[in-house]
Amino acid sequence: MARPAVAVLERHLTLYKRLWRASVFSSFVLPVLFLASIGLGVGGYVGEVGGVPYVEWIVPGVLASTAFQMAVGECTYSVLGEFKWSRQAHAMYATRVSVPDMIAGWLAYVVLRVEVAVVVFLAVVAAFGVLGSAWAVLTPLVAALLALSVAAPVTAFSASIDHDSYFALLFRFVMIPSTLFAGVFFPVEQLPLLVRPLAYVSPLWHGVELCRAATLGVAPPWPVWAHAGYLVVFAVAGVAWARVAFARRLRD
User: Fold this and answer.
1) Higher pLDDT pick, 186 / 19
2) Tens of pLDDT, residues 169-185
3) What's the rounded Cα separation, in Å, for the pair 138 and 60?
4) Which of 40, 67, 179, 242 has a CB 3.0–4.6 Å from the CB of 143, allowing a cystine?
5) Which is higher by pLDDT, 39 or 17?
6) Is this entry keyworded Cell inner membrane (predicted)?
7) 3 state SS of 52
8) Is 63 exposed, middle or buried (0-12, 13-18, 19+ CB in 10 A)?
9) Is the confidence at residue 1, as pLDDT, over 50?
10) How far is residue 140's CA from residue 112's CA, in Å, rounded to a whole number?
11) How far apart are CA 196 and CA 190, in angstroms?
């Protein structure tokens, strides 16, 4: 069962080897520039948040949001295209590759893409000395779990729709609000009381808080197991939905 999934992963890596230059700026350069402009520029006016310099406070938020946005972006047009336009998913299914193999290989590719970007970002910020705790080495694991919890349901969503116009709704009403209000740029406690539950529902908030706990060496708002468990539930539910969506779509 493992070999077909590895073959799917190898296929996606082979395709990415031809296209990687197009993603260098958004995956590696942009997060660093964003951190420099917001963390250092705006941070000079903000001062401290929670007793730590703003640039140190925002690093885990930018790291987690990078993983979140990459996972969402990778699992939209690429997934829909394999079913609707190129029909490469149908070609794989015509071989010995099963639906679980296709999903496992694809999610492994997405997580690997996210991990490379996160490790590079972490190395850059570490060189600037803005990591306050040795526990920061755990942030790639958090980013992987966050990416999986997002990639699985978005992959299922992309396999369920028949037109790419739905992605505009996903970006506008899910990805952008999550990035703005999930504790990336300011504490969720500053939001109105009625709005805060919307932040807590987002997987990004849980990823941000776990990353922040690791980079600052502090306890997260919820127990670690609760944050991690929430992300695991999202991932498991997303994989289950993806299996149903893929099977239904492959019968077209």
Assistant:
1) 186
2) 999 999 999 999 999 98
3) 11
4) 67
5) 17
6) no
7) strand
8) buried
9) no
10) 10
11) 9
What percent helix, strand, coil does the chain show, rounded to 5?
80, 0, 20
pLDDT at position 124, please? Answer: 83
CA distance 221 to 97: 42
CA 224 to chain centre: 19
* Three-state DSSP class for residue 49: strand
Place of tokens 């917001």: 38
Average pLDDT over residues 195-224: 94
| Paired tokens of 92 | 């794989």
- Round to whole Å and give the CA distance between 25 and 203: 25
Nearest to 107 by CA among 41, 217, 232, 9: 9
Tokens encoding 57: 């406070």
Token digits for 191? Answer: 């939001």
Q: What is the longest distance spanned by two Cα atoms in the chain?
A: 59
Residue 242: exposed, middle, or buried by beta-carbon count in 10 A (0-12, 13-18, 19+)?
buried
233 touches 148 (CB < 8 A): no
How far is the C-alpha of 108 from the C-alpha of 149, rounded, in Å? 12
Task: Give me 16's structure tokens.
Answer: 């990415």
Answer whether 57's CB lies under 8 Å from 215's CB. no
CB atoms inside a 10 Å sphere around CB 220? 18
Question: How would residue 39 be classed by pLDDT, with cut points 50, 70 and 90?
Answer: low
Q: How far apart are CA 6 and CA 235, in angstroms?
A: 20
d(CA 154, CA 72): 6
Average pLDDT over residues 198-213: 95
